[in-house]
């Protein structure tokens, strides 16, 4: 896989879906992503799904201009207030524009933190089903799938997250971590290097890149 294809954010869009050939993920993983279904768990979500059929686009559009400004500042390696900027970006990402969707996100995230993964899946699946244009809903469910070691489903939700928000550094970090778990250090390195162009401040990412470069160079790739 070329570095250029790794750095192209459109690789995650619905028209340019990630393929085994372009991503380096073993073909069997993509077979699971495309064909594996999962049952909607019989956990009662305390919000009628009819109320969750919402349109988040207007509020997200209103926050888009502010996000552009924040990301411009975040990309500056000399920015001293990067932690504050990162927190503000995460705060804006978590705003769906609907009290119902925000509550589903809150309850799903809380359930995930306390280890109630069945309840978390029910809430977050209700969220992405009712608000498919809300990137953070897909990202949170991708995190849940990662925590429960369902990596193929996590990659699928990361794909949706980045199609909606190509600058989502959290989703990119998750994707790189999965590549590492799958034994694909060159793909992980490409993702991390692209992430640095968006968020160059995290010491852990710089350290991960250093280790991965040593590993990749050591294998002669």
Strand content: under 5%
* Total count of helical runs of at least 4 residues: 12
- CATH T-level topology: Serine Threonine Protein Phosphatase 5, Tetratricopeptide repeat
Indicate the mean pLDDT: 79
The total count of strands amounts to: 0
Give the biggest sheet: none
Structural class: mainly alpha
Shape verdict: globular
Task: Using the 3D structure, state the CATH architecture.
Answer: Alpha Horseshoe
Helicity level, as a percent range? 55-70%
Q: Tell me the radius of gyration.
A: 18 Å
- The domain count comes to 1
CATH superfamily: Tetratricopeptide repeat domain
Distance between the amino and carboxyl termini = 11 Å
Q: Segments where pLDDT lies below 50 for 5+ residues?
A: 1-55
How are the SSEs placed, and which strands pair?
Elements: H1 3-7, H2 20-23, H3 27-35, H4 57-74, H5 82-93, H6 99-113, H7 117-130, H8 135-147, H9 151-164, H10 169-181, H11 185-198, H12 203-218
């Amino acid at each position: 896989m070329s570095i250029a294809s790794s750095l192209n954010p459109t690789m995650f869009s619905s028209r340019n879906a990630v393929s085994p050939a372009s991503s380096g993920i073993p073909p069997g993983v993509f077979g699971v992503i495309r064909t594996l279904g999962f049952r909607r768990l019989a956990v009662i979500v305390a919000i009628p799904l009819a109320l969750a059929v919402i349109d988040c686009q207007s509020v997200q559009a209103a926050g888009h201009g502010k996000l552009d400004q924040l990301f411009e500042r975040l990309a500056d390696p000399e920015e001293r207030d990067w932690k504050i900027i990162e927190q503000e970006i995460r705060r804006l990402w978590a705003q769906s524009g609907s009290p119902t969707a925000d509550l589903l996100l809150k309850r799903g995230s809380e359930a995930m933190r306390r280890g109630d993964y069945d309840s978390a899946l029910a809430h977050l699946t209700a969220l992405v089903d009712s608000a498919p244009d809300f990137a953070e809903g897909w990202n949170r469910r991708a995190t849940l799938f990662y925590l429960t070691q369902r990596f193929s489903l996590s990659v699928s939700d990361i794909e949706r997250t980045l199609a909606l928000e190509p600058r989502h550094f959290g989703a990119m970090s998750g994707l790189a971590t999965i590549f590492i778990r799958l034994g694909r250090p060159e793909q992980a390195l490409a993702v991390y290097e692209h992430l640095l162009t968006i968020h160059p401040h995290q010491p852990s990412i710089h350290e991960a890149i250093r280790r991965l470069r040593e590993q990749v160079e050591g294998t002669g790739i």
